[in-house]
Amino acid sequence: MRHHVEILDAKTREKLCFLDKVEPHATIAEIKNLFTKTHPQWYPARQSLRLDPKGKSLKDEDVLQKLPVGTTATLYFRDLGAQISWVTVFLTEYAGPLFIYLLFYFRVPFIYGHKYDFTSSRHTVVHLACICHSFHYVKRLLETLFVHRFSHGTMPLRNIFKNCTYYWGFAAWMAYYINHPLYTPPTYGAQQVKLALAIFVICQLGNFSIHMALRDLRPAGSKTRKIPYPTKNPFTWLFLLVSCPNYTYEVGSWIGFAIMTQCLPVALFSLVGFTQMTIWAKGKHRSYLKEFRDYPPLRMPIIPFLL
Amino acid sequence: MGRLTEAAEAGSGAQAAHWAGPPPTLLPLSPTSPGCAATMASSDEDGTNGGASEAGEDREAPGKRRRLGLLATTWLTFYNITMTAGWLVLAIAMVRFYMEKGTHRGLYKSIQKTLKFFQTFALLEIIHCLIGIVPTSVLVTGVQVSSRIFMVWLITHSIKPIQNEESVVLFLVAWTVTEITRYSFYTFSLLDHLPYFIKWARYNFFIILYPVGVAGELLTIYAALPYVKKTGMFSIRLPNKYNVSFDYYYFLLITMTSYIPLFPQLYFHMLRQRRKVLHGEVIVEKDD
What we know:
The complex is a heterodimer.
Chain A: E1 3-9, E2 15-22, H1 28-38, E3 47-50, E4 72-79, E5 83-85, H2 86-105, H3 124-146, E6 154-156, H4 158-178, H5 189-217, H6 245-261, H7 264-291
Parallel strand pairs in A: 1-4
Antiparallel strand pairs in A: 1-2, 3-4, 5-6
Chain B: H1 2-11, H2 13-18, H3 34-44, H4 62-101, H5 107-121, H6 124-130, H7 138-156, H8 166-190, H9 196-231, H10 248-279
Helix pairs in contact in B: 1-10, 3-7, 3-10, 4-5, 4-8, 5-7, 6-7, 8-9, 9-10
Subcellular location (chain A): Endoplasmic reticulum membrane
GO biological process, one term (chain A): sphingolipid metabolic process
Protein name (chain A): Very-long-chain enoyl-CoA reductase
């Protein structure tokens, strides 16, 4: 029996669209596509449809006849604003630091005094730092293209400005000091650099291992969620103790980089990143607990036993 | 976020008392408070009561909440009365000084201890939000109080040559009138006896006080610049062990420019709040 669907504005309750003869097994995604036909400026990614004006958004996969509606369904619409794909955002926000750091490394004119233009640092650690920083962002770009499987296709457009300011700004700030002609190498010399480099490399491998493990949890094109478990790869054994070891390893990498360069701006960047990742980890941990009754109780969100 | 609830609160003082806490901070501490506009503007979109749910807990059982409320209400009433009195004392001291001496020179020096005491004491307001007895965002309050602490401790206290500038008196007057109005507004709301003229004052004085305060603060920072540049105060130079540098002079320049985008946002937000509270206008907030 065919349904009718009316779509009202969630704020003004104005009737925006009436769809008649909608198949009962139609999904929200299909309804969004129909809605776009009458309002082309609201492409599906920026539509939020809900049963209650103040309620939660319906999922694209939800089927019309499975919802608590009569033959005429009333859906409320909220405009999520211009959207941009996650892939685009990631690529932009990671390509920036890669490029910007190199500008400072090669001492491009107008950054330091003219007598330093295109000169090179005499400290080994400065060259090492450039390799590490560049490797890190190349890894991120490649992971975005080939490894990650995103739950959501898009995010609000304003995020790209916010995110790029954060990544690009900090990259410039760190790079300025590390590549400065007056840079002071670490107090404990080669020992400190070697130890820090080891931490950095281990954490990069760890982070990559987790990304691969998470990818293998989810088949291509699907949005399924499963509890991640340790695999044969020792780096994934951190799953025994934390829900988001990728964040743990990421913080570790930056701490390593901070110790290696002995640069306060790097430490501050690590701290800010840690704060943000802790918020994300706690959220993810909470979702896991809500969704899975048998979630391992030993696990903490980001720091084993502590946080 | 506190704003929308505040608007409803301010409508009847009775509601405020039942809430066991003063209405959230509507007028920011400094009529200027550059940093807070952006955070306030963004917290605006979330119309829910953010402060009280800071702890992430559900509301306690009504009986228990009222008992907590009594202690909180008592403390907050005491706090707001004290702050009203403090700023009144400041106002009177300033007037007396000018009447006796006929000049503003030396005025700051004569009131500086009292100013520092009461303005610093306002840090408690962050705690109030943190523990949830005031339903305002910790971030918003933090930014507001920080901007005042910045002016008092990092500008007027630290840069002695500018203490006799006229601009200092300008923002002191703006702050004093604002705070007396604000704290008495909270006090009367808590006591469930809000005279209309206090509410009127709170939602109208800012129209003049904001620009006056901003002008005073900006002119003061501007006057301090040459001295900061000459002495290199609060600055760290390269090379150093931690490979960092900080130039207070450029920091002040950036602070001053940040007033440009932030002040209008804040000002227009206040105007919208005013229309809502005093004239009962229904304003549909813009979408994200």
